[in-house]
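Design job #97: recover the sequence.
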């Protein structure tokens, strides 16, 4: 180990305007992972010594983690775990690490590390299980991960309400997972401003409807997009309405129905400025998953594992079902529900990129649920 070069590199981290990522990348290329761990130790030791300079340490530490997690090498995995132990990660960045590992590393080798480090990195491995499921892996091929998952289920770990397989409405969600490289990340968005209407009309009997008191609306409808409001510039509207057979021949086309609901997001909108599209459960799942996993304009969301969890929770609420309903039941009910997506040229929707409007009519045809969300940079 070149202690002199390590000290020189750390001096550059402390004093240069440009962080020495070239040296970090060179060590990674040469598989000198011990050097990266030593730099991480120095960064941790000096963290908060001068709070105004913390950006240097944060940037360096995250570059080291990305370098190790994206390098396919057994020793890089050990280096990564050593670095995480120095300054433990949680939340969104932990899910990022799991995504990098799932997309890069040899899973047989990773599985062996699970057995050795189960308790210490339990949140990382739990995220990893769902990352693999989302990417189409059969997790049953990895005995240590499965054994861990079984233990987590007994402890009611939050992610274990998710199954170890994808259901039909989730067939496309991998398209909306964030991809990572050493230079950044990117993802596709399954939502955004609409510009045209469908010609399809409702195929349900005429009905009357009444607004449900906001105090008893299913609050988990918010779950997939709550990060937009809490961590970015987002705003959200959730409404639910009871449906009853009409006392007279009262039919609704989609546009007239949307206006009759009295939504804040459509206040002042003309029929020419409202755009509606008939869709399937798959599209609603894609939209909610991407919103939860990838976030809005100024945040990075909850990651893929918790993004999947929050997507199903929002979907349950939209179908007027409680949290905890088995995913297999939700998938079946989603296929039987009616789905619309909508958008409008209004003062409510920002119409930048992050616009969501979902209407669900549950299989029993007795509740209409609406979720609208918008965010801007």
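Job complete. Output follows.
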């Amino acid at each position: 180990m070149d202690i002199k070069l390590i000290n020189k590199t750390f001096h550059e981290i402390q004093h240069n305007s440009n962080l020495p990522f070239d040296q970090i990348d060179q060590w990674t290329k040469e598989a000198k992972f011990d050097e990266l761990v030593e730099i991480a130790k120095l960064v941790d030791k000096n963290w908060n010594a001068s709070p105004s300079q913390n950006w240097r340490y944060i940037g360096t530490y995250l570059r080291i983690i990305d370098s190790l997690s994206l390098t396919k090498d057994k020793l890089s995995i050990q280096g990564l775990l050593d670095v995480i132990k120095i300054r433990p990660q949680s939340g969104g960045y932990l899910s990022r690490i799991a995504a990098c590992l799932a997309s890069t590393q040899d899973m047989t080798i990773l599985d062996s590390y699970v057995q050795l480090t189960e308790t210490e990195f339990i949140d990382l491995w739990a995220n990893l299980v769902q990352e693999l499921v989302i990417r189409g892996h059969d997790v049953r091929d990895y005995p240590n991960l499965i054994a861990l998952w079984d233990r987590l289920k007994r402890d009611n770990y939050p992610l274990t309400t998710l199954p170890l397989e994808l259901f039909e409405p989730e067939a496309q969600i991998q398209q909306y997972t964030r991809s990572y490289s050493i230079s950044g990340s990117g993802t596709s968005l399954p939502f955004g401003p609409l510009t045209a209407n469908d010609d399809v009309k409702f195929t349900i009997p005429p009905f009357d409807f009444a607004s449900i008191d906001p105090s008893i609306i299913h609050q988990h409808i918010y779950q997939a997009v709550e990060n937009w409001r809490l961590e970015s510039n987002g705003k959200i509207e959730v409404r639910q309405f009871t449906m009853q057979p009409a006392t007279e021949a009262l039919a609704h086309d989609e546009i007239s129905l949307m206006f009759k609901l009295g939504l804040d997001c459509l206040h002042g909108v003309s029929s020419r400025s409202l755009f509606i599209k008939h869709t399937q459960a798959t599209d609603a799942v894609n939209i909610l998953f991407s919103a939860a996993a990838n976030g809005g304009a100024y945040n990075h969301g909850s990651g893929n594992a918790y993004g999947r969890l929050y997507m199903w929770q929002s979907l349950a609420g939209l179908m007027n079902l409680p949290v905890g309903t088995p995913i297999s039941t939700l998938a079946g009910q989603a296929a039987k529900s009616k789905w619309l997506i909508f958008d409008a040229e209004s003062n409510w929707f920002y119409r930048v990129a992050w616009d969501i409007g979902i209407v669900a009519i549950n299989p029993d045809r007795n509740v209409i649920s609406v979720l609208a969300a918008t965010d801007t940079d």
